[in-house]
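Budget justification aside, the reviewers requested a transparent look at the raw inputs and outputs of the sequence design task funded under Objective 1. We therefore reproduce one unedited record. The lines immediately below are the structure tokens for a 133-residue chain.
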């Protein structure tokens, strides 16, 4: 879950590999997975599809107990807004979802009005109010 990812857990990220264009996506789900390597495309074992993944810098150390590396994986499920715009997430977004435009290596990203199904209402715009996300 993105809320559970701390920035000190992703400090060794060097880059992201996006498997599809993220400009059309309001949000992506992110998780911190235990993977056998610092780089390369990870195996994907969820429903839906992998949208991208993080590459780690050469100085990233594996876990002493498991020998694995914690890397972020970005993904979407079949019932997410990009494929089911009138479905469960027509408004709102899953807990682990963030706006992909707010992501960068070492930055966990955040929800935005767009990821939550915005745009803001006319009243909010007139009052200069933005969602506290």
């Amino acid at each position: 879950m993105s809320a559970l990812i701390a920035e000190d857990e992703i400090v060794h990220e060097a880059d992201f590999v996006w498997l599809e264009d993220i400009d059309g996506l309001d949000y992506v789900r992110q998780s911190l997975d235990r993977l056998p390597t610092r780089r390369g495309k990870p195996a994907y074992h969820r429903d839906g599809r992998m949208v991208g993944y993080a590459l780690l810098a050469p100085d990233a150390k594996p876990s002493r107990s498991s020998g694995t590396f914690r890397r972020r994986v970005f993904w979407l499920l079949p019932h997410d807004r990009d494929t089911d715009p009138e479905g469960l997430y027509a408004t709102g977004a899953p807990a682990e979802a963030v706006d992909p435009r707010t992501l960068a290596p070492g930055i966990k990203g955040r929800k935005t009005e767009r990821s939550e199904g915005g745009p803001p209402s006319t009243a909010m715009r007139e009052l200069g109010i933005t969602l506290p996300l």
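The mean pLDDT is 89. The longest helix spans residues 122-127. Computational costs for records of this kind are itemized in the attached budget.
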